[in-house]
Design brief:
Blueprint lengths: L13 H12 L5 E8 L2 E12 L4 E2 L5 E3 L4 H14 L20 E3 L9 E3 L6 H6 L14 H8 L9 H8 L17 H13 L3 H13 L20 E3 L10 E3 L24 E3 H11 L9 H7 L10 E3 L3 E3 L2 E3 L4 E3 L14 E4 L5 E5 L4 E6 L10 H13 L13
Antiparallel strand pairs: 1-2, 1-16, 2-3, 4-9, 5-6, 7-8, 10-11, 12-13, 13-14, 14-15, 15-16
Helix pairs in contact: 1-10, 2-6, 2-7, 5-6
Length: 411
């Protein structure tokens, strides 16, 4: 069994622990695991509440969590490894490897029909996929739109589709915008997983095992939880009111969500965008490889690019339910805070981050060489204020304040 041992620290994380325990006590969360790193040193770790609320099984460090979009970071690392090896350039058209994504058409603004399109002004590149600027969609967050209906009719996200079959499903569908002209969260990272399969000649899970998981000793991370380990998989819960995310009350839904039998048996689709299960110790191993002095999966200059702003001025992240997220940009493997917003810590400028739909999240603050992790399992957990509050509390404990240095000019 892995062991997360902290080093003595001058920082007081009492408020971090108390805040998470209070959410468990109120019935907002079933449980929460977290870890904080300063450089390579683990300075705080904690477990609040329950892995199984109904059976009253206390959360331990060896419990497993549905990583959902935390998977994207791992997939992006594998892609950047192949880029370092010279298999492709970041600005290469992806149709060189995945012909189904060539000769793209783009849906017209305000279109009422899926065939109301125009030719794309340029190809989808690997960089577009890494930054979610390819014009692809998810068919998840924009119900009622023509693109949403088309993605669901084509069963783009169906777990019985292989990644190759997903490319076939995408082939006839138009893009939501011209590549590079906007940002939309999408199946782009699953397309990158297919790129890894084509370049390596291996199924994605096998390539990921060889390139990332085995070198880092991430033995708990994969697409399927073996039957002998399924008792370690935490429960997955729905909040009492989607419109009021802090309302107490939880209903267990892992028998049906994200679909029956998820993570319990092998499936054709190995989703690079959201299919992995992981543990807190494995995620700590992953963070260490991205912080100074850690095991090197990527060159220092690649890590710097990986965490740097890739969107042009004026382009920002945008979700249908929230609109533009001003001050938010995207790097090569996750989001980037250009300017801290009202929910962010004042010192969060430059933070490289992402999270999953169930509330698992990670971040790296390059200026202070610190990192944090939160592992929870609640439907749409990314959209409630638990994560931002946790991050603010950690920043305060670490004493990270706003950087008064003028930002470097964009090159």
């Amino acid at each position: 069994m892995p062991c997360l041992t902290t080093v003595p620290s001058r920082h007081d994380f009492g408020a971090v622990h108390a805040g998470l325990q209070e959410l468990v006590d109120r019935g907002v969360l079933a449980g929460a695991s977290h870890a904080v790193l300063s450089g390579q040193e683990l300075v705080d770790v904690g477990y609040a509440g329950w892995a199984d609320l109904e059976a009253r099984i206390a959360l331990r460090e060896d419990h497993l969590f549905r990583a959902f979009s935390n998977s994207k970071l791992i997939t992006s690392i594998a892609v950047l490894q192949l880029w370092e090896q010279g298999h492709f350039a970041l600005d290469d058209p992806v149709e060189r490897f995945i012909p189904q994504l060539g000769q793209r058409r783009v849906i017209q603004p305000g279109a009422r029909r899926i065939d109301d399109t125009e030719p794309a002004r340029g190809p989808i590149t690997v960089r577009h996929l890494l930054t979610h600027t390819a014009g692809l969609s998810y068919g998840l967050f924009d119900p009622g739109t023509v693109i949403f209906d088309a993605y669901n009719k084509a069963r783009v996200m169906h777990p019985q589709h292989t990644l190759a079959q997903m490319m076939d499903a995408l082939e006839p569908l138009p893009l939501a915008f011209h590549p590079g002209s906007s940002w939309e969260y999408s199946v782009a990272t699953d397309v990158l997983a297919r790129l890894v399969e084509i370049v390596t000649g291996r199924r994605f899970g096998e390539a990921l095992q060889r390139q990332v998981l085995d070198p880092l000793g991430m033995a708990d991370t994969g697409f399927v939880v073996p039957e002998s380990q399924q008792h370690r998989l935490t429960g997955y819960y729905l909040g009492a009111d989607p419109a009021d995310p802090m309302k107490p009350g939880l209903t267990r839904v892992d028998a049906t969500q994200p679909f029956p039998g998820a993570y319990l048996r092998p499936l054709p689709r190995q989703s690079g965008g959201g299919g992995l299960v992981s543990s807190l110790p494995d995620m700590v191993r992953l963070m260490r490889c991205l912080l100074p002095g850690g095991p090197a999966l990527l060159k220092p200059e690649t890590l710097a690019s990986m965490m740097s702003d890739q969107l042009p001025p004026g382009l920002t992240l945008r979700f249908p339910e929230s609109g533009p997220l001003f001050g938010r940009s995207h790097a090569l493997a996750g989001g980037l805070i250009r300017t801290p917003g009202p929910l962010d810590a004042p010192g969060a400028a430059g933070e490289f981050y992402w999270g999953g739909v169930a509330g698992t999240l990670w971040w790296i603050h390059p200026r202070s060489a610190t990192s944090g992790l939160l592992m929870i399992q609640r439907v749409m957990g990314y959209s409630h204020p638990v994560g931002p509050a946790f991050k603010r509390s950690v920043y305060e404990a670490l004493g990270i304040v706003a950087d008064r240095t003028p930002p470097a000019p964009r090159g």
